[in-house]
Amino acid sequence: MAVPLPLAGKTALVTGATSGIGLVTARELACLGARVLLVGRDAARAEQAQADIQLAAGPEAHVHIKRFDLSLIRNVQSLADELLRELNQLDILVNNAGIMPGAFTLTEEGHELSWATNHLAPYALTNLLLPLLDAAGRARVVTVSSMAHWVGEIEANREVRNSPDKYSWLTAYADSKLANILFTQELAHRLDLTGITANCLHPGMVNTGLIRADTSTVMKALWSMGRPFMITPEQGARTSVYLASAPEVGGISGRYFANCRPARSSNRAQNRTEAARLWRISAEETGIE
Predict the structure, then answer these.
(1) φ, ψ for residue 20 (rounded to 5)?
(2) CATH code reported for the domain at 11-286
(3) 172: pLDDT strictly greater than 80
(4) Domain positions in the chain
(5) CB 93 within 8 A of CB 13
(6) Looking at residue 116, what DSSP letter applies?
(7) Which of 58, 70, 264, 265 could be joined to 269 by an S-S link, Cβ 3.0–4.6 Å?
(8) Is the pLDDT score of 228 beyond 70?
(9) Looking at the whole model, is its pTM more than 0.85?
């Protein structure tokens, strides 16, 4: 008799799942038996990712595409609405989608692009999907952050954050990664009496397609010089898969991990007042409490 796979009967949603560590995370969860929903912007890449995962996980695997650009909150709302109609529960949510910002860009909804993609989208999606996560009984929310959060700072004034004159790709990215950790802290606190856990992680310096075409020349040069020392997407995805599936972390919540172990985050990232303040800012900017 075949031994049941560890995640058989569970449903996982992975954002940014068409390349890099998102693709590997989705593939590994499918290989563990989960029904996997891939969220990506590009149809061709999503279909290729689906085919690759299906090949790796076998003909019995259930892999589905959800094509949405999560830099816009209205698209996040549309994705959530679709999932609430289609699913009875969601066992695993991996907030993996993220960008390394290039030139200053405002979305159609008036948010700086990396802030919208890296922070507001996971904040909104997670909150909108809480009914499905709660229905799972014991669900897990995993959010990909970065050690760049150490130089991050949360700017409460949206006008300052959206000012081209004050913009820096480095601070924009670091701020959004700090927001990932503070969001996780506050989410875990708010879900303390539920069966839902929330953790975040630093995947390592991963050789992926994070660099955009409009990324600064300096950043491209630094990235090129650092590439020989970077880890593979397979290595970078290990902590995401660990937090999404390992039995030993099923009851742990509100923590920051690296290399599949609890890691130290910055003092700012551990500030509960900052976490609560960020939650208020996020609720105001997305219209989602």
Answers:
(1) 55, -145
(2) 3.40.50.720
(3) yes
(4) 11-286
(5) yes
(6) I
(7) 265
(8) no
(9) yes
